[in-house]
Design brief:
alpha/beta, Rossmann fold, six-stranded parallel beta sheet, 9 helices, globular
């Protein structure tokens, strides 16, 4: 069983890659608690996509405090009794800040992030979903969240590259890198079962999974 080995699992990846859908299915499958991002609660997000320079700092700090409060509560829970699947990794938060903030704003952000980071528990496993920027753009536009319609493929390309660089250096927890281009974990039960078998068979700290391997 998944949570015999991993009590705190994080699903990560760029916008449109399907991390929330997979986190929800994993949590449902394992009878675990789901800890999910709540972008709809951020009052600055829609305005950020319309005017990034003006609203980037407010948007980023709202998410930082929102996630900081959630992982603080998670750290106080008994993870041996309550298993959790999250759709975000707190340590990844600066990735967006570096993309969207100017130098002075990022310096302020870093001070706040460092004070909150101490409260974040380390996952037992991170599932890092990957997809090509064109695929991400198609998926984002298909789900058609109003505030996401203005996201460009260029921005998604920069974001995907930033994720790749982040996880190239990330070593705080085991990472299963998943190429999701030809996998559908929500609608295809066989794809989901393949992933579960791959997770249960993990032996190293960094492994890769795609259809056919």
């Amino acid at each position: 069983m998944l949570f015999d080995k991993y009590r705190y699992v994080v699903v990560e990846g760029p916008i449109g890659v399907g991390k929330t859908s997979l986190a929800q299915r994993l949590a449902q499958h394992a009878g675990a608690s789901a800890l999910l991002e709540k972008p709809g609660e951020n009052p600055f997000l829609a305005r950020f996509y319309e005017d990034p320079p003006r609203y980037a700092l407010a948007t980023q700090l709202f998410f930082l405090f929102q996630r900081g409060n959630e992982v603080r509560d998670l750290a106080q829970m008994d993870l041996f009794r309550v298993s959790t699947v999250a759709d975000y990794l707190f340590d990844k938060d600066p990735l967006f800040a570096r993309l969207n903030l100017n130098e002075q704003e990022f310096a302020l952000y870093q001070q706040i992030f460092r004070s909150l980071r101490l409260q974040a528990p380390v996952p037992d496993l991170v599932i890092y979903l990957q997809a090509e920027p064109q695929t991400l753009a198609e998926r984002v536009h298909r789900r058609a969240e109003p505030y996401e319609r203005g996201i460009s493929e260029i921005y998604l390309q920069r974001l995907a590259q930033s994720y790749s660089e982040f996880f190239y250096h990330y070593d705080a927890a085991p990472v299963l890198m998943v190429n999701s281009e030809h996998l559908n974990f929500v609608d295809q039960d066989e794809d989901f079962k393949l992933l579960l078998r791959r997770i249960e068979g993990m032996r190293g700290l960094r492994e890769f999974f795609s259809r056919g391997n």
